[in-house]
User: What shape does this take?
Amino acid sequence: MIEGTINFLKNLGPQQDRKGATSSDDLSKMTEFSIDEYRPMKVIAIGAGLTGVAAAIRYRQYVPNVDISIYDKSDGIGGTWYHNRYPGVACDVPAHCFAYTFEHKADWSACYSPGHEILQYINHVVDKWGVRSLIKLQHEVVHMQWDEPSSQWIVRIRRPAANDPSTFEEFEDRADVVLNGTGGLSRWKWPDIEGLHDFKGPIVHSAGWDFGGSTWEEDVKDWGDKNVVVIGLGSSALQIVAALQPKVGKLCQIGRGQTWVSPPFAVPKISEMLGRELNPSDPSNLYFSEEEKISLKESPEKLFYFRQQLEAQMSSGHKITLRDSELQKASRAMFTEHMRKSLEKKPWIADLIIPDFSVGVKRITPAPGYLEALCADNCDFIHEPIKSITSSTVEIDDGRSIPADIIVCATGFDASYKFPFPIVGRNGVPLNQKWTPHPRTYVAACTDGFPNLFFAFGPNANVGTTSILGMIEHHVMYSVMATMKLQRERLKSIEVKPEAVDDFDDVMEEYFKKSVFSESVPTWYKVGKADGRIVSLWPGSSLHCMRALRYPRWEDFNYERLDKTKNRLFWLGDGMTYSEKTFTGDRTWYIKPNYVDVPPVPES
Ligand code: NAP
Assistant: This one.
C-alpha cells in the first residue's frame, strides 16, 4: 500500500518537470511572428516523370513560400514515357484512366494510349500548370546526405559543365524535404547471356530503344527483310512482338516461363459507350474516330462519365488478386479460353505459355494483337533456354541456331529499389544498406532514420490491376501534407517511428499470404525471385491505398522543433494572422469558395 503511494508520487515527477520546463521556456519570442508567417521551404523532387510533375504542381499549389526543384538525369521530361520508345509502347490500362485526376484527356487516339501520346500529355500538363522552369533536366542526383545541424538534405548534383558541356560539373543543393520519385522500373538491365555483346548487328534493350528516328515506325521502315529476335515474355516483349511482326521479314520470340494474356480490359465497356462494336483482337480497330474524340472534348460531363465508367470497371477487379476468389477462378477460365482461341493456329504455343499459376501473379497484359502476331506465318516462338549469342545468331540449348539481323532484349529491369546513388540518413546509415535484404517503409511513403524524405511510386506503391495515377498523386500529397505540417508547426524534422515501420511490415506479411502474389513464381514484384518479400506492390487495392494515405496518422512520427522550446503550441505565434498584422493580403479567405465546404441541403 505504502509502496503504491510512493510510486504514485514518483509518477507525478514528470508533470512537475514539465511544469518547470514550460515556465522556464522563453515564450516571449512567440510574439515575433504570426501564425501564417510561413518560413521558406526548399523542396527537391527527384525524377521528372508523372511523380515529379505532380509534385511540382501540388507543392506550388499548397505550400506557401516554397522553392521546389525537380532534378532529372535525362534530357527530357516524362520518366518511363520518355525512355520507353520501343515498337508498340502503350499503356496497359484504358487510356482515359491513364491521366492525372485533375486533367482528363478527351482525344486519346486509341483505347490503349500509345507511349508518345502519354509523353505529349505529360508535357501538356507541365505547360498548362507552368512548371517547366522548375524542372532541371540533365541534372543527375549523385549523392544525398542528411545534415543534422541544419536538418536539411545536402544533395549533390551532376550536370554538363557550363563552359564545356562534353564534361560534367557537380554542385550542391540543400532541401528541407526531398521527394524521391525515381520509380522502380527506371534501371534496365541486359540479360546475362554468353556472347551477348559479340553480336555484330544492332542489339537494343526495350527501355533503351534508340535508332535515331523520330518514331519507332520510322526506325523500322526498312526492316521488311530483316530477321528480328525478341527476347522476353513480359509486357514489353508482348507489345513489341505485336507491333513488329507485320513490319519485319521474320520475327522470332524467345521466351521463358509463362504469362497470362488477357482480352483487352474494358473494350466491351468502351464499345457499349461508343455504341459500336470494337474488335479486341485487332489493334487497328481500337482507335477512336475524330467524331468520338470531338464529342468527348466538347462535353466535360461526357468525358468525366466516360472515364468514370472505365475507372469503376478497373477498380472492380482487385479481388482477382485474392487466392481462390470467384473472380480469380472466372478470370482464369476466361483468359484460358481467350488464349486458346487466339492461338488456335499454333496450339502448341498455348500449351507452353498458359500459366499453371494464378492470374495476376505476374503483371496481367492485354497486349492487343500479340497472340494474333504469334500465329502469323513470319513469326516463330521458342521456349527453350538461350545457350549463347554469336556475331549473327542466337544459339538455343536444344541445338537450334536462329539467324538474327537485329536483337531486341525485352528482359526487364532492376526492380530492387536499390538506388544508384547513396542516400545517407541519420547516423551515417546508407539507405541501400538499411534496405537489405529488401526495402522497409511506412505506408510506402517514408522510412525511419531518414527524416524529411518521402517516396512516391517507390517500394510497395504499385498495383497489379488498375491505373497507378491515383496512387502516385496520393503519395505526392502525403509528402506535401508533411511539408505543410513542418512549415505550419515550426518543426525542423519529421521521422516515422521504427515501430510504425515494423507494423506496416507485419501488415504486408499478413496481407500477401492471402494474395496470389505469394505463389512461388519468379516475378519482378519479388525482384525476380520466386519467393520472399513482395517489394513492388501495395498490400491492397489502389482504392485502399488512396484511402489509407488521405489522412496521415501524424502520431506515428517523431518531430523536432525548430525553436528552442518545449511548448508544443509555440507556433501559435502572436495571436494574429499575417494579413491582420500588416494590413496586407486577404482577410476574407474563410468565406471564399475554395475554403468553404458547403454542406449538401437535404432534399425535403
Ligand atoms: P519483365 O516483366 O521483367 O519481363 C522480362 C522478361 O524477360 C521476362 O519474361 C523474363 O523471363 C525475360 N528474360 C529475362 N532474361 C532472360 C533471358 N536471359 N532469356 C530469356 N528470357 C529472359 O519486364 P517488362 O516486360 O519490361 O515489363 C516490366 C513491367 O513494366 C511490366 O510488368 C509493367 O508493369 C511495366 N510495363 C508497363 C507497360 C505499360 O503498358 N504501362 C508496358 C511495358 C511494361 P523471367 O520472367 O523468366 O525472368
